[in-house]
Amino acid sequence: MAEPAAGYARVFAIPEFRAVFAAHALSLLGVMVSEIALSVLVYDLTGSPLMSALTFALGLMPYVVGGTLLSGIADRFPARRVLVVCDLVCAACVAPMVVPGAHIAVLLALRCAVALVSPVFQGTRMAGLTDILGDGELFVLGRSLLRIVSQSALLAGFGLGGLLLTVVSPRHALLITVATFLASATLLRLGTRHRPARTGRPGALVGDSLRGARQVLADRRVRVLLLLFWVPPMFAVVPEALAAPYADGLGAGSVGLGLLMCGLPVGTIASELYAGSRLRPAVRERIALPLVCLTLLPYLGYALRPGLAVSLLLLVLSGAGSAYTLGLDQWFVRAVPGELRGRAMTLLTAGLMTLQGVGMALAGVAAEFAGVTATCAGAGVLGTVCCVGLAVAARRTEGRAEGTES
After folding, report:
1. Maximum CA pair distance of the chain?
2. Cβ-count burial of 166 within 10 angstroms (0-12 exposed, 13-18 middle, 19+ buried)?
3. With bands split at pLDDT 50, 70 and 90, how would you rate the model's confidence at 4?
4. Contact 331, 390 (CB under 8 A)
5. For 230, which DSSP code?
6. Which of 22, 144, 189, 237 places its Cα 20 to 30 Å from the Cα of 152?
7. CA distances from 134 to 158, 194, 279, 309, 384 (A)
8. Do domains 12-136+154-192 and 204-406 have the same CATH topology?
9. Which residues contact 353 (CB under 8 A, 6 or more apart)?
10. Which pLDDT score, from 0 to 100, does residue 15 have?
11. Which DSSP state fits 95?
12. Mean pLDDT over residues 128-149, rounded?
C-alpha cells in the first residue's frame, strides 16, 4: 500500500524543527531589512545608483568562495555550534554599519563578510535537518517549508523594508538586523540539541573543503542532481532581472513592476504547498523530472510580446513547475554519503546563488543586443533544452544509484 503524505503538520510537531523554522524566519527578516537599508544608505552616501546596486550584487558574489573554501566547517564541527557562531558573526558584521561615519568601503566589506558566511550557515542547516527530521519524507517537507518562507519573504520583505525606512533611518533599521541575528542564534542554541560532528578534523580547513568538494563532484549521480538544482533557476531569474525594462515597455509603471516580481514566488509557494500537503512521496519523485522539463516552457510565450496579465500568468506557471525540488531533495540526500552531507549541502547552496547571479548578469547583456522579450523567450528555449538533457542524464544514473544502495 502506498505511503500516505505526511503533511506539514507532522513536521511542525517536532520542537527542534519549530526552533529552526523560527530562527530561519527571523534571520531572513534581518537579511531583507539589511539589504534594502544598506542599499539606501550607500546611495545616500554616494549618490550613485551603481554603488547602490552593487550592495545587492555583493550578497551573491562571495557565495562561491565561502561555499567552496569553507564548506568543510559544516562537517568538521557540531551543527548547532556552527549555526550559532555564524549568526553571531553576521550580527558582529552588521553592528559596525550602524556607526555614523562608517566609510563606504567598510560597509561593502562587511556586506561581503556576511555573504561569505551565508553558504556555510545554510549548508549546515540543511544537513542538520536530516539529523532532526531524518533523511526521508519529513526532511523533504521541512526543506519545502523553509523555501516557502524564503519565497514569501520576497513577496513581503522588500515592501515592509521600504515601509520601515519611512519611519526610521537606514542605520537604525540595521539595528533590527543585528537583533534578528542574535535572536536566531538564541533560538538555535536553546531550541536544538547538541550533536557530534559528522567527521574528524583532517588537516587544514581549506584543503579539507576542497577535498570534500572533489569527493562530492566525483559521483556522476550527485553532479547531475546538483545541476538540476542549479540550472533551472539560472534561467528562471531572467524575467525577474529584466522586470524593470519590461514593465516600462508595457507602460505598466511601478504597480506592474511589483506584480511581475511577485509572479514566480506566487507560483512557487502554491505548487510547493500543494505538492507537500497533497501528493505522496512516490508521486513527487515520479513527477520531478517531467516538471523540470516543463518549468521553463512558459517563457516561450514572451516571443508573442504579451501584455501584463499574460506575462504574469507565464511567470506563475513557471514558478509552479518548481515543485520538482521536493523530489530532487529526496534523491540528493539518498545519493550523498552522511559524512559529506554538510559539504554537499553547502556546495549546493553556493552554486545555486552564484548561478542565479550569473543568470541575471547574462540576461542584462543579452537584452542589450536582442531586446527584453527575445531574451526571456530565449531563456525558455535554451533552459528547456538544458533541463531535458539533465533529466535524461538523471534517468540514466537512477538505476545505478539504486543498485548501489541495495
Report:
1. 66
2. exposed
3. very low
4. no
5. H
6. 189
7. 34, 16, 19, 42, 33
8. yes
9. 60, 63, 118, 119
10. 95
11. G
12. 91
- Distance between CA atoms of residues 310 and 316, nearest Å: 10
Measure the CA angle with vertex 238, ends 235 and 239; round to 5°.
Answer: 130
For domain 12-136+154-192, the CATH class is mainly alpha
Could you tell me if residue 371 is left (phi over 0), alpha (psi between -120 and 50 degrees) or otherwise beta? left
Of 116, 73, 77, residue with least CA distance to 93:
116
What pLDDT, in 10s, does the model give residues 180-193?
999 999 999 999 99
Q: Within 10 A of 125 (CB to CB), how many other CB atoms are there? A: 26
What is the separation of C-alpha 319 from the centre of its chain, rounded to a whole number of angstroms?
Answer: 14
pTM over 0.70: yes
Identify the helix (H) or strand (E) that includes residue 299.
none
Residues 68-97: tens digit of each pLDDT: 888 889 998 999 999 999 999 999 999 998
Statement: 204-406 belongs to CATH 1.10.1660.10: no
* Nearest alpha-carbon partner for 16 in 143, 188, 215, 253: 188
Q: What was the pLDDT predicted at 34?
A: 81
Average predicted confidence (pLDDT) for the chain: 87
In whole angstroms, give the CA distance from residue 307 to residue 230. Answer: 29
* Grid cell locating 347: 556546495
Nearest to 329 by CA among 125, 140, 147: 140
Is the pLDDT at 32 greater than 90? The verdict is: no
If you average pLDDT over residues 283-296, what whole number do you get?
A: 96
Residue with cell 533529466: 391
